[in-house]
């Protein structure tokens, strides 16, 4: 396989397998710009507009639609046709009054799931890391490249620090106001974001500790009572009692 990073161009053969493109039709394909999501877990806006939504027949038409400001991601206009769109991002087609959320989906890996205008006002983000910054405040590093600062009134007793890695936040977009917090724990509802069970939804019923936290074995139970397992790195909590986002019919 050809190299995906370090170059300005990307061959179709080296592109991620889940991209909905014909590998042998042309040699080159648009390469996402460096941004909030890595190449292997994102789709460039041009491919979404042309191949998935079918709003354009050619690359030139797709680039024009994007450049004119008809596409928003997480509430902000994006005019770069290479902009990487990834997990849980909210996509808006302004002229059509349509909204979509990028969610993991069996086999296809990613799916544009149509949502309502009200649901498009927020997104879920997973906490990947947390650090203490100047003044004793807590900085949360999220899966989509965002950083949110949690201000602490007393650094010696940081009562505001209730967040852990792999927890999920529900935030407004584009304002980034935290309106929900869902812990990674037994009983939580989660969706699998990678691996052979990608797209499956279940309630966490068991967590087996391993040497590395990301490699913990997580057991989930779907709505039909079927149990399946994956590693913690592939788990994305989406709610406590019920999912906080809409899902494709039959998923939960």
Detailed description of the structure:
- The protein is mostly beta strands and 252 residues long.
- Helix content is 7%, strand content 36%.
- The chain is built from two helices and 19 strands.
- It has helices spanning 45-52, 59-67, and strands spanning 10-11, 28-29, 42-44, 71-73, 76-77, 84-86, 90-93, 98-105, 109-115, 122-132, 138-142, 147-150, 168-172, 178-182, 189-192, 201-208, 217-221, 227-231, 235-239.
- It has a five-stranded antiparallel β-sheet with strand order 5-4-7-8-9, with no helix packed on it. Strands 12-11-10-13-14 form a five-stranded antiparallel β-sheet, with no helix packed on it.
- α1 (45-52) crosses α2.
- The protein is globular.
- The protein starts with 9 loop residues before the first strand and ends in a 13-residue tail after the last strand.
- Residues 1-6 have low confidence and may be disordered.
Overall strand count = 19
Q: Please give the order of strands in the largest beta sheet.
A: 5-4-7-8-9
Gross geometry:
globular
Q: Major beta sheet, specifics? A: 5 strands, antiparallel
The helix fraction, in percent, is: under 10%
| Count of DSSP-assigned helices | 2
Head-to-tail CA distance between termini: 37 Å
Question: Helices, strands, pairings?
Answer:
Elements: E1 10-11, E2 28-29, E3 42-44, H1 45-52, H2 59-67, E4 71-73, E5 76-77, E6 84-86, E7 90-93, E8 98-105, E9 109-115, E10 122-132, E11 138-142, E12 147-150, E13 168-172, E14 178-182, E15 189-192, E16 201-208, E17 217-221, E18 227-231, E19 235-239
Antiparallel strand pairs: 1-2, 3-6, 4-5, 4-7, 7-8, 8-9, 10-11, 10-13, 11-12, 13-14, 15-16, 15-19, 16-17, 17-18
